[in-house]
Amino acid sequence: MTINIQYVQMPTSESLTAIITSKLEKLANKYDWIIKADVFLKLENDPSGQGKICEIQLSVPGPRLFAKSNQDNFEKAAATTIKELENQLKKRKEIFKKY
Fold it and tell me: Which of 59, 65, 78, 98 has its CA 20 to 30 A from that of 84?
């Protein structure tokens, strides 16, 4: 699986890249048919304290899977987004026919 992480209008973070990469690799070990993951980390001005946005798009057989979350820090946003993608992957796996 190829992982592309893009930081939009914010500085890059090696530790955040390592956290997201390790979580996505665990997901790829569980679902070996994931082709590519595109991760977008965005910083928004939000008066409520949130504004750390994580968007992940997975290239898999069939339509692409997409999830997005907005939290008060990027670690929570990434964890929430990956959890949502895992739920979508479980549903997609049930659709696959066994031959």
Answer: 98
